[in-house]
């Protein structure tokens, strides 16, 4: 089977943006590919190096969310990045020949530094995290990496590093290809992009009651002041969630009713909530049970990391021979 690899930084419990933008797709891929999914705790250090204890706590929370959403340790290798030390070794070797100019042209480098002005990100770790990212992917010789269009430059850098290694030392790494995933627009309850930092997120860890209490006052089309005012679904953040959870035929009726002002916003939200719970209800219930079985989740991560390390060790044995470090 072809290999797929992806990871997430443990920066907190996962919200609907994480679920719809990546996790739901990961679950679907594991039936067709050999999948490696890792909690990228070393990557989290690039911005959270002053508070590493939170990374340890969130690592387990992310794993619980993954398993609740349907990642299956019988189908996928689920592991923690820092538990496979070979990632760091390959990263070190890659860093020796990766030009600084390749890293400085990374389009997200300046964007994130601008976005997180309150953090000191003038560090080697932050500048060089794409090299670690390349090591994460190439150590498993992944064929595909599920990414959005905005992440394509990162994957191209990984291919450049693979080509440079193969040229300098001999053929070892395939060039991973993007498995483009459509990134849906997932608004938060205030209408802005759903984000932990905006405090506007609906989490997989929320109870059904908490989800409804967040959804009920959610902003809608600001031009629709009263129930009798016609609305425009294209300007309504709630309708973006309808696209993610509500079947097309139902959504079409909602759209027509909104435009004709024959349907109130709270009625629209009730329909959305019903369909959201049909999908998220089982996830929430499974997550509740996993919260009570944290040792089982840790065992899954340990076993997954053991399996991942077997693959990583085989790659590093090959790398050491090619680079002359196999004494």
Write the layout of secondary structure elements.
Layout: E1 3-8, H1 16-29, E2 34-39, H2 41-48, H3 52-69, E3 76-80, H4 86-97, H5 100-104, H6 107-115, H7 124-127, H8 129-138, E4 144-147, H9 152-169, E5 177-180, H10 208-215, H11 237-245, H12 248-259, H13 265-291, H14 294-323
Parallel strand pairs: 1-2, 2-3, 4-5
Helix pairs in contact: 2-3, 3-13, 3-14, 4-8, 4-14, 8-9, 10-13, 11-13
Q: How are the strands of the biggest sheet laid out side by side?
A: 1-2-3
- The helix fraction, in percent, is 55-70%
Choose one word for the global shape.
elongated
Mean of pLDDT: 94
Q: Approximately how much beta-strand content do the residues carry? A: 5-15%
Element order, helices and strands? Answer: EHEHHEHHHHHEHEHHHHH
| Structural category | mainly alpha
Alpha carbon gap, first and last residue: 33 Å
Rounded to an integer in angstroms, the radius of gyration calculated over CA atoms is: 22 Å
Q: What's the number of extended β-strand segments?
A: 5
User: What is the count of DSSP helices, taking H or I runs of 4+ residues?
Assistant: 14
Low-confidence stretches: none
